[in-house]
Amino acid sequence: MAVTTVLVIDDEPQIRRVVRNALGDEKTRVIEAVSGAEGIDMAAAERPDLIILDLGLADIPGVDVCREIRKWYDVPIIVLSARHADAEKVELLDAGADDYITKPFSTSELRARVRAQLRRARTTPLGPANSLIEAGAVTIDLAKPSLLRDGNVVHLTRIEWDLLRTLVKHAGRTMTHRQIFDAVWGSSSYGDAQQYLRVHIRSLRRKIEADPVRPRLIITEPGVGYRFEP
Amino acid sequence: MVIIPLSAVTRAGNRGRWPWIVWLGVLAIVTVGMLLVRNRLNEAQVALVYLLVVQGGSAREGRGLGFLLAGVAFISFDWFFLPPYGTLAVAKSVDWAVLGAFLLTSVVAAQLFERARAEADIARQRSAELERLSIEREQLGARAEHADALREASRLKDAVIASVSHDLRTPLTTIKALAADLASGGDERAMIIEEEADRLNSLVADLLDISRLNSGTASLNPEPNEAEDLIGAALQRVAGTTVGREIRVAIEEGDPLLIGRFDFPQTLRALVNLLENALKYSPPSEPVDLGVRRDGEWLAFSVSDRGQGVPAAEGERIFEPFYRKPGLPPDVGGSGLGLLIARALVEAQAGSLVYEARVGGGSIFTLRVPAIDVDVLAGQ
Predict the structure, then answer these.
(1) Which alpha helices (DSSP H) does chain A contain, by range?
(2) Domain final residue, candidates B165, B200, B218
(3) Which residue of A has its CA nearest to B206?
(4) Which domains does chain A have, with CATH numbers?
(5) In terms of domains, do B148 and B161 share one?
(6) Which listed site, A185, A186, B65, B224, has its alpha carbon 20 to 30 Å from B93?
(7) What percent of chain A clears pLDDT 70, i.e. is strictly above it?
(8) B168 touches chain A (CB under 8 A)
């Protein structure tokens, strides 16, 4: 099996060591950049399979590093943040980051997030072959489209289908409210209209989740958006 | 502003009648002096000298003495200086005119002096008042400077707390990560280290929140959100600590939809805090109830437990910093800031958080945020 390369961009040596210890093994090579500028150069030169980017860099704001790399390289980017600032997370996801982890994080959490992103990057885009999703008592066929719950057909409205399709297309990745809204309603009238997004998420959950107050498929990322967990 | 010339009222009282006697004495001396040279004086000269005395008295002591001096001078003038001497009779009719003019001039002058004096008094009062105000202003200015300095100090303190909190997270990450590595090898002590690192982290987060809320720099972004979404997120957040515990959820059905205007992450934080408290302070066998309903113009979330509740006398004290129920060991989790933060977070977005005793034992915490009415069809 090919060796996976992970690039860590962080000016804190302790954090680089934690990431190296957590991820480095015979199948994973961890390379390190100590500044944003060096990180961008190494991303171009080494073409890593995944990038872990610290937001608190001394030279370039993390969000700009993310945007810069995203311009020419489609690679999973996981952001490390010391702050619980949701606006910052939203900005990063909108800038093209795939996931974020808040410090202090556990190594098992980091490994799980990295594995999920690598897996997602390797799967082919959604086609007829994998448009069938089975989750508990629910079978979703996005191609037809149809939804079966305990063998019974459940009707979804057009907006609910658009919403579900948007989330499934980016399964495993948190989509910001803005991204979802733009995909379903078009970018025309955000703002207070986002309340409709909340209402439709609620009705969609009531149709596809076994227990809508303990959702397993559509996960809420507080202050950020929603994520479909296949 | 009304300024009462106090000195005008109290002048005579303060200084007694002595000046009046002095001025009458002056009048007598002047009269005697003029009598000695009466043959070389004409009426106009006498009138002029008397007028000087009358006006001097008016100017110094006011209208009352002016009138008195004018009256006495009038009589003396007539008696001593207008022929026939030694009587009040007047020989020439033109002398009546002289006397009349003298009296009129004296009285008018006394009157004018009085007015000028009153105005001078008012001016004095005003200037005193102005002086007082300017002193007060100076004092206020000094106090404002002091307040500015205090605010600045408080801001600095918050900046230090924020920076310290931020800088604490990096070593905490290292500690947590290394402890987790050791714990995966089965070392129980490493698990404790990891738990304590987590606890330290939540303490840091609490301190950071308090400093943000105190300095008014907490970033709250109230926007339309849905109640069931918040409940789901809260249940997910406490899932790790609720193994074997039952949380019963009651969501009011029907119209209107349960939509409120609130900051989702911060309200979640408050609600999770209430849930964690309820789980922590009630027996493991007792379920915790989590509900939401429309309550007039509010969206009311309630967390109810079957714990010991709070003694009636301590009802509001639980929202004070570092409050602990009497008799509880000091290491029962938490920073002692949770409820304080929860209430501050909710109040900062026009909501409220109240405690009430639960019928049959236990506590009910009710968290209210503004509800909004949504026309669902508009979004189709």
Answers:
(1) 13-23, 36-46, 62-72, 86-94, 107-122, 158-169, 177-185, 194-208
(2) B218
(3) A84
(4) 4-122 (3.40.50.2300), 128-228 (1.10.10.10)
(5) yes
(6) B65
(7) 92
(8) no
pLDDT, tens only, A135-192: 778 888 888 888 888 888 999 998 899 999 999 888 888 899 888 988 888 766 665 5
Structural domain boundaries enclosing B130: 1-218
Residue spans of alpha helices (H) in B77-187: 93-184
Mean pLDDT per 10-residue section of chain B, whose length is 380 residues? 43 64 88 86 83 84 84 87 82 80 83 84 90 88 86 76 72 84 82 85 81 76 91 91 86 83 93 92 92 93 90 79 65 70 91 92 94 64
Of B219, B259, B379, the CB nearest to A200: B379
Tokens 């998420």 correspond to what residue?
Answer: A201
CATH of the domain at B337: 3.30.565.10
Q: What six digits make up the tokens of A52?
A: 């872990």
Report d(CA B249, CA B235) in Å as an integer.
10
Give yes or no for a cis peptide into A145 (omega within 30° of 0). Answer: yes
What integer pLDDT is reported at residue B3 of this predicted model? 44
Of A202, A214, A219, nearest to B226 by CB-CB distance is: A202
**Which residue in A107, A213, A222 is closest to B251 by CB distance?**
A213
* Distance, CA of B48 to CA of B361 (rounded, Å): 103
Q: What is the pTM of this model?
A: 0.67
Task: Kindly indicate whether the ipTM for this predicted assembly is greater than 0.90, answering yes or no.
Answer: no
- End-to-end CA gap in chain A: 25
Final residue before a domain boundary, out of B218, B248, B276: B218
Residues B94, B209 within the same domain: yes
Contacts of B198 in chain A (CB under 8 A): 104
* Alpha-carbon distance B201 to nearest alpha carbon in chain A (angstroms): 8
Helices (H), chain B: 6-15, 18-36, 43-61, 63-76, 93-184, 188-214, 227-238, 264-280, 338-347
Computed over its alpha carbons, how large is the radius of gyration of chain A? 19
Same domain? For B254 and B158 the reply is no
For the segment A190-229, what is each residue's pLDDT rounded down to a tens digit? 655 677 888 899 999 999 998 889 998 999 998 889 998 8
Beta bridge partners, B355, equal: B365
Is residue A107's pLDDT more than 70?
Answer: yes
